[in-house]
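A protein record pairs a chain with a discrete description of its three-dimensional fold. The following entry can be read in just this way.
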Amino acid sequence: MLLSKDTNVRTLCVIPSRYGSTRLPAKPLADICGKPMVQHVYENAAGAAGLDATYVATDDPRIVSVVEGFGGKALLTSPDHASGTDRIAEVAARMDADIYVNIQGDEPFVRHSDVSALIELMLAAPHREVGSLCHVMDPEDADNPNAVKVVLTHAGDALYFSRSPIPYLRQPASGRFKHMGFYAYRRSFFERYATLPPSPLAEAEQLEQLRFLQAGIPIVMGIVPPMRGPAVDTQEDLDQVRAIMSAGERRS
């Protein structure tokens, strides 16, 4: 669906992009077919309908320089943030908007339609402060702890997220969903984010969105098609992304 811009709602896309990574240092600047990864993410996200502006929020001046070098907008933020949501909370304190869309800086296959789907999801659910996306899960991901699973309520909210295979299938069934690490937040969410209590569930699963659920903040979910490639967490992921993009360039 083509999203028409609601001129009464200011929407920012913020791309958290951290230079340091234990598994793949400096990955936002990793070259993929002649462009740094952060540029692929920025250009794919920035073209979405419904956005007023797109920024990379980073902890490192080298990323700021690269983003500004390709014509993008970047904000230097604290190096002490524990998560992308913390980094966006800093941006929200500095820049006023109604909706903040969070697209991680290691998602080179994000589509314009994913960003627009998040904006549309929030416009259609004004009673929700947080929205996210999922897609039908490949059966091969069922036992992969790096593939986060989500189960939904009948109303379309997230019921639970887990790295384990959920639901457990006593009988064959379809419709398992894989969570995509994209979010949209209303400004009101950040007004209480810092006061949320610690979450044993989030600590156990190492999934920050469980902190929201355990505090009683619903997450409305949108279902979109699977992306054509993975997020980049490891060198193996990076090699796979390069191969997929190179093959796509040869066919075009």
Observations:
- The radius of gyration is 18 Å.
- The helical segments are 37-46, 61-69, 84-94, 112-124, 187-193, 200-205, 209-214, 235-251.
- Residues 149 and 244 are 24 Å apart (CA to CA).
